[in-house]
Amino acid sequence: MDVTIQHPWYRRPWFLGFYPYRIYDQYFGEHQNDSELLSRLYSMFFYRPYFGRFPNWFDIGMSEVRMDRDRFVVNLDVKHFSPEELTVKVNDDYVEIRGKHDEHQDERGIVAREFYRKYKIPGGVDPSTFTSSLSSDCVLTVCANRHLDALERNMPIAFEVKPPVLLAAAVCTKAGKAVVSRQFVEMTRTRVEGLLAAFPKLMNTGKQHTFVETDSVRYVYQPLEKLYMVLITTKNSNILEDLETLRLFSRVIPEYCRVLEEAEVSEHCFDLIFAFDEIVALGYRENVNLAQIRTFTEMDSHEEKVFRAVRETKEGEARAEMKRRAKELQRARQDAERSGKKSPGFGGFGSSSMSSVTSATIITDMIEPEKPKVAPAAVRPSGPSKALKLGAKGKEVDFFVDKLKSEGENIVTSSAGRKASDTSKVLQPPVNTESVHLRVEEKITLTCGRDGGLQNMEVLGIITLRVTDEKDGRISILINNNDKKGAQLQTHPHVDKKLFTTESLIGLKNQEKYFPLNTDLGVLKWRLQSTDDSLIPLTINCWPSESGTGCDVNIEYELQDEELELNDVIITIPVPSGVGAPVIGDLDGQYNHDSRKNILEWTLPIIDDKNKTGSLEFSIAGKPNDFFPINVSFVSKRNFCDIQVAKVTYVEGNNPVKFSTETSFVVDKYEIL
């Protein structure tokens, strides 16, 4: 007889919760329970309603697989099979359980059953330890041990350290002078300045207009009017990412600097450095944009807000208190004037003939709480004072010091007074200082290459006027300009520029006014910038040559400008560390080896036309690059550009005025790279 098989679509339940179970468990083929007879009220198909019975896994014949900490366990209901009808076998990575019995008669008829289950053995389970047992309630248990060492083990974490690709970011001039620089790796200042000084020479060597390369680094740059934005990277960096980073750096600078000039960039150097740190971290660019950089750098601090609020509150209270006192003082003056008494004045401020309105106005306008309060001068008693006298030793102190010396203690007296006196001697103006005193000062910044060639030289000069007598306030100053090097001169805004151009006279535009008293006023400035080798005042040639035992170094100097007289010349040469002191050969002057700073100082008291050349020879272990950069310092009483004060006269009458001058020419930076 053919049995019609229903399509699976018709066997789906109409309501949720009514799912057939008989096809899935091991009771298939048995009679129905009483509770299952109710199913015919709902459907014509045979299924077990969800609410009909609530079996556990032992009732429905399903298996349980459990992974304990130390073993793998499989539980299976085999209530219809005897132990002889069951087989458990481990085959490769699987454990197989099979049960089968032939047809036999039971209370309901003839039945034959067979099942086959296959379980994947998890990793870490030892297949040789599988065991099986059958319980009294016909539950077959198959278990095996797990490898404890496979459960927990420490795994080393491999950390890949990528070398940084962005070494430094700098804003420099076209001559290679660093205005502001930020290093993202460990680099010395000398190394950075050397790389930037070499950058202008390399710009014209490559075919690209955005980057140039050397044997060790790559320069990625962008012009900013008179400056350059330069990134120094390794040659392994991605040039496209470097260009994108450069564009972000170039957009950051105008956010903080109104004009792209050296002075403006120097003024906002710390703001730029903070912004640079937000762009690059550990040599790699951060994923930030311009708006995020501004947000991060200008992030408000709660403590700062509280401090500002407290300070503003105190300042407001101080202003209110001073206004109140000013009103009280004004009221007291008015009352005194009405009663005919003498109005109260300001003790210690001199004349008391100021009107009450003027006095009140002055007090009202004083809003700074830090101003000292004005009090009437106290009358000093005629008797001896018991107050502490500063700067004088008491008898008890002298006695205590003598007692310590007698006991053998080494007493070192304070040198503060002596240092102060020494400082005053250094800073003391010339002895023959007149009421009209003029200072002619020059400062030089110079960078040369070790193989010769002037990279950059800048000389800044200024004439400062100081008048101490009011009768000498209306004067004119005649300048003797013998400069032939091309210095550019600039006068003070209050000085008559036309008069200076035509007659070389420095005078005020309004000749009825006086020069300020007791104030240093810069009346004339000049600037000389050049790359002409003939303008170098003092040339330094260093010739290091390697030998079998180290390096032989020969250093020579030559005074180019014979009209100069250089005093206290110190030539500082770096030497390798940890190799001992250098062996000095020929020497002009004196030398000093500082082992802590690893430098050799060559000292010459004077260099002039009679002593215009000299040399130093020494030997020490090292390489030729170890002896650079060389730094030079000196002072001179003759200026470089030969601009002097010739005469000072009164505006009225053109009579000469007695005046004094002092001239100085010093080094700001003098370096041979």
From TrEMBL:
Residues 317-355 are annotated as: Disordered. It is a peripheral membrane protein. Residues 433-673 form the MHD domain. GO terms for cellular component: COPI vesicle coat; Golgi membrane. GO terms for molecular function: structural constituent of eye lens. Its main location: cytoplasm. GO terms for biological process: endoplasmic reticulum to Golgi vesicle-mediated transport; Golgi localization; protein transport; retrograde vesicle-mediated transport, Golgi to endoplasmic reticulum. Oligomeric complex that consists of at least the alpha, beta, beta', gamma, delta, epsilon and zeta subunits. The coatomer is a cytosolic protein complex that binds to dilysine motifs and reversibly associates with Golgi non-clathrin-coated vesicles, which further mediate biosynthetic protein transport from the ER, via the Golgi up to the trans Golgi network. This is Coatomer subunit delta. It comes from Triplophysa tibetana.
